[in-house]
Design goal:
mainly alpha; globular
Length: 201
């Protein structure tokens, strides 16, 4: 019981931490692998999208997770691969926050999506994160290493969030999932407001 509550509190803390302070955080002083590994975790918009997708998949059920998590992984790979054809930096930011808003608002409203729709959202969300997390290195081996780490990290975060939400079996846990969805929705709206107003306000 205590372990279950602790796991839920930890998951909620991670979800609530996804506030849109800035689009990217510096990764100076770390190697390419760790830069890729940390990127989906420390960049607020990427974490927002992955957490919202994981929340949606776990909320909808096991079958949605079964297809949605591989779709998220595939989207990450596809988005990162687009970096080799010179996609504009930050091209995925608006898209990934839009996907996050759709996923989080769906959970907040308590709407269950068809498996195919949830999987498509996961695929597009992963694609947007991959676009946003393109490695800066010019070396193909290093870019491949960084991208692999990003795919691994993003997939694991989405899987963990989905697994925690999927394990809910008490009323307070159901409420916590809805609250987390509302927090993520609010974070996405704040990010869009920040982009419209600008950093200088």
């Amino acid at each position: 019981m205590k372990r279950s509550a602790a796991a839920w509190l930890c998951a909620i803390a991670i979800l609530s931490a996804t506030t849109p302070v800035r689009a990217h955080a510096p990764l100076d002083g770390v190697g390419d692998f760790y830069a890729g590994l940390l990127h989906p975790i420390i960049v607020p918009t990427e974490l927002l999208a992955i957490a919202a997708i994981g929340l949606l998949l776990g909320f909808c059920g096991f079958k949605h997770c079964h297809y949605g998590i591989p779709a998220l992984c595939g989207g990450l790979i596809l988005g990162l691969a687009m970096g080799f054809i010179d996609v504009a930096e930050g091209a995925g930011s608006g898209l990934l926050v839009g996907i996050a808003l759709v996923a989080a608002a769906t959970v907040t409203a308590g709407i269950g999506l068809p498996v195919a729709v949830a999987a498509v959202l996961a695929l597009v969300g992963g694609f947007a994160v991959g676009l946003d997390a393109q490695p800066e290195t010019q070396s193909f081996p290093m870019a491949f290493l960084t991208g692999t780490a990003t795919v691994l990290s993003g997939t694991v975060v989405g899987l963990v969030v989905a697994a925690v939400v999927l394990s809910r079996d008490k009323f307070w846990q159901e409420v916590a999932v809805r609250v987390a969805g509302s927090w993520l929705t609010a974070s996405g709206m704040l990010y869009f407001s920040w982009r419209l107003v600008g950093p200088s306000g």
